[in-house]
Design a protein that fits this description.
Layout: E1 16-18, E2 24-26, H1 30-49, H2 54-74, H3 94-108, E3 118-119, H4 124-147, H5 154-174, E4 182-183
Antiparallel strand pairs: 1-2, 3-4
Domain Cobalamin adenosyltransferase-like: 7-174
Organism: Marivivens niveibacter
Pathway: Cofactor biosynthesis; adenosylcobalamin biosynthesis; adenosylcobalamin from cob(II)yrinate a,c-diamide: step 2/7
């Protein structure tokens, strides 16, 4: 259980922050940048949820919870020392990726195949989901970069990869099952 009764601690005033294992690193470290971008993604999902209803709203809620799990996973280095922690360490698991794949397949079953790239936009929800997609891709790139330097749970990286696909397909659902997608016209303004 997390208890936050004092929001500011002044411990980060010198440009460092604590990781999940208690070690301190620079706030601009690759690990902090990766989980900070996951936090930014979670905020963009919150904006999208303002426009969502039904299944999409419920699924976005689950995604927000997953993103907190992913942030907790990324903020704790040294996966090989998880069994030494005084408490169970939270790591992303394959079933979270599997759930996204199942939802993508279900949404995509009702969509016509694309014959063109689409432009971000259409409905307000679709536009927000496209923003989520691009932030998810950035979080994925930063997590892959981190993984080239330090140990990272590969399931978290897979989750981000699948999640950006989820946002793309969900944006089409939000655009009247693709009927209101805005198609890219190559060279249209030449």
């Amino acid at each position: 259980m997390v208890v936050l009764n004092k929001i500011y601690t002044r411990t980060g005033d010198a440009g460092e922050t604590a990781l999940g294992n208690g070690s301190r690193v620079a706030k601009h470290s690759a690990r902090v940048t990766a989980y900070g971008t996951v936090d930014e993604l979670n905020a963009t999902v919150g904006l999208a949820r303002l426009h969502a209803t039904g299944d999409l709203a419920d699924q976005l809620s689950a995604i927000q919870n997953d993103l907190f799990d992913l942030g907790a996973d990324l903020c704790r280095p040294d996966m090989e020392k998880d069994d030494e922690a005084p408490y169970p360490v939270l790591r992303m698991i394959a079933s979270q990726v599997d759930r996204l794949e199942t939802e993508i397949d279900a949404m995509n079953a009702n969509l016509e195949p694309l014959r063109s790239f689409i432009l971000p936009g259409g409905s307000a929800l679709a536009a927000h989901l496209h923003m989520c997609r691009t932030v998810a891709r950035r979080a994925e790139r930063l997590s892959v970069e981190l993984a080239s330097m330090e140990s990272v749970n590969d399931i978290g990286v897979k989750y981000l990869n699948r999640l950006s696909d989820w946002f793309f397909v969900a944006s089409r659902v939000a655009n009247n099952n693709g009927a209101d997608d805005i198609l890219w016209v190559p060279g249209a303004n030449r």
